[in-house]
Amino acid sequence: MSVTTKVGRNDPCPCGSGLKYKKCCFNRDKKNLDSLKTQYGQQYKIRFKQPADIEGIRQAGKLALAMLDIVEERIKPGITTDDINTWVHDYTIAHDAVPAPLNYRGFPKSVCVSVNEVICHGIPGKRVLKDGDIVNVDVTPILNGYYADTSKTFFVGTPSNDAVKIVAVARESLKRGMSMVKSGNTLGDVGWAIQDYAESQGCSVVREFVGHGVGFEFHEPPQILHYGRRGEGIMFLPGMVFTVEPMVNLGGRNLHILEDNWTAVTNDGSLSAQFEQTILVTEQGWESLTPFGL
Ligand code: MF3
Ligand code: CO
Ligand code: CO
Fold first, then answer.
1. What pLDDT is attached to residue 5?
2. Which protein residue has the closest C-alpha to ligand 1 atom 8?
3. For residue 101, which atom of ligand 1 is closest to its CA?
4. In the prediction, which pLDDT does 7 show?
5. Which of 187, 190, 208, 277 is most exposed, with minimal Cβ within 10 Å?
6. Which residues, in sequence order, are bridge partners of residue 235?
7. Cα separation, 41 vs 43, whole angstroms
8. pLDDT at residue 264, as a whole number
């Protein structure tokens, strides 16, 4: 079944009839796509986004990226992870937005700050950043009711060779995962691309945390696994919005959660890095609603 509307309405129909697409298979293809969306809504509870929703998420995404830019400018040895929380919290409020992490399932702060062997969900506090640390900062503002979720891993001062490596592999893992997103490809294609690349570099992919639908809520269906097999799972369809956010470890993939019930750390103490973007499936491929270069 064709699930793409990549062909222009006035282009020749791909079925080979010689007619214009709009005079031939266009309506049938559109019906197929609409019925598949209805099915995915009912079966998987996926909430497709309309153009006005997409614009709302895009604006939230702009705010999220502005916060990451501020963090990037100011992060340096001697600051605390709580300082980052203050910058993000105040900037969010000053722009009439709400920090989604704050009080989310009991999370006590406005941003996740994950240092070195912390994989994700680090709680800002008194920890002082030192030269050579790597720090993931994960922000999710809610603006006019719309959520955008994005993160980057920053160097503090001068990075070690290990730090340079794991950050580069995490960055490229997200890039390769995102490049598999297009209508008709499946979730498994993204997971496969990430796992195949990260493991080829001798690194490992965390399995306990996944990407997720986003926009109307913080975490919506479907889950986006960062490992898997090509062609597995459901298809991407235009109007889906979700995150891709692979967590990649320099050593093994196993983790444990600290006493605070949030902080996830590598079992072997090896470095972990992550980049995250909020992605829209378009008719042509994808668009990042939190776009930054990778
Ligand atoms: N931002 C994280 C994600 O990418 C979720 C953090 S949940 C929190 O999905 F409660 F820790 F903020
Ligand atoms: Co996320
Ligand atoms: Co996030």
1. 56
2. 101
3. 12
4. 86
5. 208
6. 186
7. 6
8. 99
- Does 155 contact ligand 1 (Cβ within 6 A)? no
Q: In the chain, which ranges are E strands?
A: 98-99, 112-115, 118-120, 134-139, 141-143, 146-147, 150-155, 204-205, 211-213, 220-224, 241-244, 247-249, 255-257, 264-266, 272-274, 277-281, 286-288
pLDDT of the residue at 4: 56
Q: Is the CB of 276 under 6 A from ligand 1?
A: yes
| Ion ligand 3: residues, Cβ under 5 Å | 138, 149, 276
Alpha-carbon torsion, ordered 60, 52, 290, 47, to 10 deg: 100
Residue 276 CA: nearest ligand 1 atom is 4
The whole-angstrom separation of Cα 79 and Cα 255 is 27
Edge-to-edge strand list for the sheet holding 220-224: 220-224, 211-213, 241-244, 277-281, 286-288
Which residue has the least CA distance to atom 11 on ligand 1? Answer: 121
pLDDT for the residue 6: 73
Q: Rounded to an integer, what distance in angstroms lies between the CA atom of residue 255 and that of residue 117?
A: 10
Task: Name the residue with the closest Cα to ligand 1, atom 4.
Answer: 149
